[in-house]
Amino acid sequence: MLAELTEDQKEIRDLVRTVLATRPIGGTGELSLPEQARADWATLAEELGVGALLVPEDHDGLGLGFAEFCAILTECGRALSPAPVLSSGLATLAVQLSSCQTARNRWLPAFATGTIGALALAEDDDQWFATTPATRAELLNDDTWRLTGHRLFVQDAELADVIVVTAATTHGRGLFLARTDDPTVTITPMPTMDPSRGQATVHFDATTADRLDTHTPDLVDTLHDHALVALAAEQCGIAEHALDLSVTYARERHQFGRPIGSFQAVKHHCADILVDVERMRSITQHGIWAIQTTHPERTTIAAAAQAICSESAVTTTLTAIQIHGGIGFTWEHELHRYTRRAKTNETYLGQPATHRNRIADHITT
Where is the Acyl-CoA dehydrogenase/oxidase N-terminal domain positioned along the sequence (predicted)? Predict the structure, then answer.
């Protein structure tokens, strides 16, 4: 099944596209990357209410759903926006999906008014959503925990007000939320190949945290499924923009007295990108439908969406560079930025092989 966009969802998508079209792509312009990301977030959160999108109405939010979130992420990928929409949206979902009323009452209204969240999930051995995390959580009293450990590749950590992190307890894995203004939290920027979005290492040294999954034991797995489909939606936007650039260039660039799009080799490249884009859209829409309907195979579908979209986004941007010829290889052209975002996304939340292994494990158990 495919989750086709409704007319209201298309209006939200088109509004975000119009707004982001006026902003420079991530890592360009006069502002530094963090300043640009904050400016874009201010526009999206304050003027369009993106921060309140996933927050229920009874917690001062808009009460919209996962499909609207993914539609916005596709536009963020298309515009290569540095705004922390993916990170903060997933952090909001972690609280929104929780059954802990204390955490919901405390943090959902904060997200609705622009609080930025991030996810801290990656281990030293490149595991994401590890069953036994290296970071440890110690219970101080009935409601308060302390986190000790570190996480790598935390996207938008420098912008975040709160961080959602998995940690090991004496009774298994848990999901926690900590404030970044806690003096026991240290954020160290990491160099990455993507100049349009920042990542960092985050250290926790007996950091006070709220537990989110006390009454929702499957919360980490549920968040995992949502995160994979959400990232796939952003990758769709990257590939769609690569297709648009390629088709436009093939029509406008002339060689031997005619558009290069009339040559069979260029036609084949454009057709290959289109096939990849349609495949990415289909599996992502299927993933959104599976999430919304809590389909019993949603874990497999979400893993398949990310395995396919992560590789296809890289393939489409590289093919687009080939279509553009010499100009496509220059720093002045924007395509290399889309390629670098796609390549970084390919490993964010796990390698494609990791997702395929998750599918195999789910099928055989």
Answer: 6-114
